[in-house]
Amino acid sequence: MVRLGFVIGLVAVIGVLLSGLAAWRGYEQELAIDRIALSRAIDVHASLVQERLIERELLARVASGLFRSPSAVRANMLHPLRASIYAFKTDFVTAGWVARLHPGELPQADAALAAAGFPNPQIRSFDDTPRDLHSLDKPIDVVMDVEPQNAETVVFPGRSLDRDPILGPMFARAMQTRTPVVSDPIHLLMPDGPIGLVIATPVFQEGSETAAGFITFSYKLASLMLTNDELSLFSVVLKDPRNPRSELIADDSGNVTSRLRRPADPVPLVLRTVIFGGRDWSLGYYPKNNAIHRAQKLAAVVAAIGLALTSIICGLFGYVAYNNLRLSREIQVRIGFERRLTAVIDELNHRVKNILAVIQSIVTRTLRHGSDIEVARELLIGRIHAMSNVVSLLSESQWQGVKLRGLFEARAIPHTDRIAVNGPDITVSARAAQSLSLLFFELASHSDEGLSLVGKHPHIVVHWAVEGEGSEAMFRFRWEEFNTSAATRREDSDFGIILLDRVAPEALGGVSKRYFTEASYVYELAAPMETVVDVTERDRTTQISAPIRPVTHQAR
């Protein structure tokens, strides 16, 4: 018992160590997989954002290249560009023409805005407050046209943007760099509208170094950040260029809000830089799922499974060891049964080998090279079902044999409702039952179902009889399918031909033949009754299945 306890303890220690190692490996692998998946998703997202920004900057450059400013101030300058800017199919909110007007051109601009039908053609400040135009001594930037023109945008023409705290510096940088420039984040359409960005591209007249104005496009920030993905592994934020501690974050509905990150708040897992309008923009990525927590849960599950398996193994080991100890004390009582047990095992091995050999032959022949997989699958299932059914019948009779008529009543034989059975109710041996069950299945599964019935009568007739007496008795079996021919009947498979012509007759020690008549298909089998019934096998089975009586010791 001490040795047994030591062995069980050693197994328990090894199981605990292996469980801990498996849990640690699971934890590390889960973290590594999450990191790789998140890193790839972030790289793809940053690349898509950069491509989207390049596309929108390209639209601004193309629009400015197509634009030709006239000598006179006009208010419908974007009309010729409608087809070009909409052909890009970008999701801009508004497109605008902002003219750089000298003080002497302002009255003409008022008249042009009024003629275009804008509701407020007066030149005014960016917040719609009046502006003293008589004191101007330098050009100002005035909105002269917008696209699309709707109730929200037609109020913009006439506003001067040079004093706007966000757009004014943007126009100044665009004039200085002569390239597209992007503004800081700004509310679009109205003071509490969606947060977005405005890109401005200067337009120069031929032979002039001074910009005649700017083509502008405004975009919602959420569409530029590609944030509307509920299945994403991360949430993305934009670092506010005006405040390093502030972040612009969009929810799944596309609403962008600004939040101030506190020192105790987590920092983004990854930062990516994209370029838009000559500026660097920083995108921060926060993972939506806690990879460490998920890895810890996985490790806990693996460890629990390992410990449970260790407990089960130790318990089984102890249980088996205890039973071995108990059985060792009963060996002397069971010595008298050893010869009987050996005989049972030998008989069982013999029958199991026979069954396995038959199943192996069925599988090999059915799934031969080149056979149709669907047909082979149906035949294989049916043949194994036929074998399983006859084994069940033999088990119910303790392997004493099977009633021949019972093989036709089994569900393993197809089309039994169309088979008329006629013959004496004889009991066949286990070996004969296995061969005949496969034989009946092959014949029934290849019967012609298309011409199966005449009126309500079955088209298959099965008849068997016993001729002669004693050792000369012969078993004669006849299977006849009516209303069929070689042209309509389903062709026998290779396995079926071998079974009908060789395997079944040889197993029963008889002979067989199959042929077509003018109106039927006939299969006949003749075998000695000694083989079909096999009295020797039945007697041996009867002896083995008899109840075992314990050995009794007579008193001296």
UniProtKB/TrEMBL annotation:
Class in the EC hierarchy, top level: transferase
MF term (GO), any: ATP binding
Protein EC: 2.7.13.3
Transmembrane segments: 6-27, 298-322
Catalytic activity: ATP + protein L-histidine = ADP + protein N-phospho-L-histidine
Pfam family, any one: CHASE
Residue stretches making up the CHASE domain: 142-232
Keywords: ATP-binding, Kinase, Membrane, Nucleotide-binding, Phosphoprotein, Transferase, Transmembrane, Transmembrane helix
Name by which UniProt lists this protein: histidine kinase
